[in-house]
Amino acid sequence: MPTVHASAEQAVANSPVWLITGCSSGLGRHIARAALARGMRVVVTARDVHQLDDFVHDYPANALALELDVTDARQIAQVVAESEHRCGGIDVLVNNAGYGYLAAIEEGEEHEVRSLFETNFFGALNMCRAVLPGMRARGRGRVINMSSQAGLMANAGTGYYSCSKYALEALSEALGKELKPFGIHVTAVAPGPFRTDWAGARCARPPLRSRPIWQRWVSGANSWRGQTAPSRATPRAPPRPCSLSRRVKIHRRNCCSDAWCSRVTAPSCCR
Predict the structure, then answer these.
(1) Where would you tag: which of 8, 167, 194, 241 has the fewest CB atoms within 10 A of its CB?
(2) Catalytic choice (148, 161, 162, 164)
(3) Beta strands across the sheet bearing 41-46
(4) Average of per-residue pLDDT across 16-44
């Protein structure tokens, strides 16, 4: 029996180490649970560390919960240092922390837009810069940046959010080319609609009274939704070529050049 116990401890000690940001809800929480269920060691992080208690309770040998606000450079340095000290290095970094912002371009508030970029773009950038020296020293690693379909196309009302994700896409593409000689790979994941709190309490937006453009666009969209659907007998126009499909193919070729990413949980850009 002691031999079995020792073997289990050795298996945990030899398993890859994942550091995931934004694990309090949504995709970050599900990615963390999927990695833990597969025997990985996972450093789960969130601004409120108490929201991560269930990870430590369910996976006491594999989960390490740490407080992290990705807009705080001091906290980033502390989390990376503690993760490397307690786990022996970080093999996979998942930059998942982020939130949505709904506003017309003309009506967006500058301080809110800057805050959006501090989390969605600069947070991921600073996490990369903190983790990459250790990965380069070990000659291996994987960076997974949670982008979005909004990083491949932009729509009315979510233009600023798209800007932050377009920037993350460019960062991922350039970083992948820079790090390939060091044995480090970069994957940008571009999910579509998922049932997360993206458009709920975690989504920022200006006060409705100051958004006439947004109000008009929403009322027009609601009016369109209320129209009677065309009959099945109505002939449909031939489908138009979708420029997005070509861009997604390019995205997959640039960011997902090997088979590894097809085994990561829910990378919709790789399926």
Answers:
(1) 241
(2) 161
(3) 63-67, 41-46, 17-20, 92-95, 141-146, 184-189
(4) 95
